[in-house]
Amino acid sequence: MQQIRANGKILLSGEYGVLDGAQSLALPTQLGQIFRFEKINEPEIQWKSLFADNSLWFEVIFKLENNQLFEQITPATSETTRLKEILEYIFIRKPNLAQTGGYKITSQLEFDKDWGLGSSSTLIYALSKWAGVNAYELLENTFGGSGYDLACADASTAILYKKTNQPYIPSVQPIHFAPDFKEQLFFVYLNEKKNSREAIAHYQQLKKSQRTHLIEVQNRITQNLLTAQTLTDFEAVLEKSESVLSRVLGIKTVKEERFKDYPYSIKSLGGWGGDFVLATTRKAKDMDYFIGQGYTNYFSFEDFIK
After folding, report:
1. 201: confidence class by pLDDT, cuts 50, 70, 90
2. Which keywords appear in this protein's UniProt record, sorted alphabetically (predicted)?
3. pTM for the complete prediction?
4. Domains of the chain
5. Which one of 222, 245, 258, 279 has the lowest number of neighbouring Cβ atoms within 10 Å?
């Protein structure tokens, strides 16, 4: 049996612009997803996905014939259709995988499925590593996206990520990111999962000149986040990032929308409108504000980030 583990991800800077080559600061999370691959004699793929508590959330069996998958027993769903698409692409690229027998594949999340930490990216990463195909190629031909989340899946530290002109070969630079004020940084779940494909479609409707300008600004923001010496400096960069994207996207910032009376900085992470935000604090009791608003799932930097 082969076991592959992939980290979840947080995009701290460069949201949206990362699609067009903005240099982005991304953080692998301590929580991820584990995949187990076992060869079996039957010509089929027996797939099972588990929640963190070991309960079943998804199961399907595909008959395997001439590198094609035929669903057996369970009716087609959006999950089975997408999984079938990914596996068939792999078997076309790596036909030897399906020459004899099949596979029993089990995945297990370490985080809540609705948290937006990368259930899809960890899937793509693990399947590409198992099959021996380029993960960025597999992503481009299935889900699409920038690929920063795939880089996080295998990272042991924060990374600077940038798409390049070389197909399926991004620039991934491991960096040390543990600011002196990290004890005052918290990640808060907004009780709402954002559909990243919808967010990306919205961004791609912008004029090319707007996107080019955004990339230039985000490159500076990423560097300024890395060089901020104090929490106050760091907050100024966060707020600059929020105001720029708010203006470009024509969307209120998350602080304006939900947390107007919070005294410190709040930054959206990834697609605006859901998943996690980064909140700065001065004392631990500041998190009572979010609890009082009904946002009870939150993590310290130390407990959340690798």
Report:
1. confident
2. Kinase, Transferase
3. 0.95
4. 2-174 (3.30.230.10), 178-304 (3.30.70.890)
5. 258
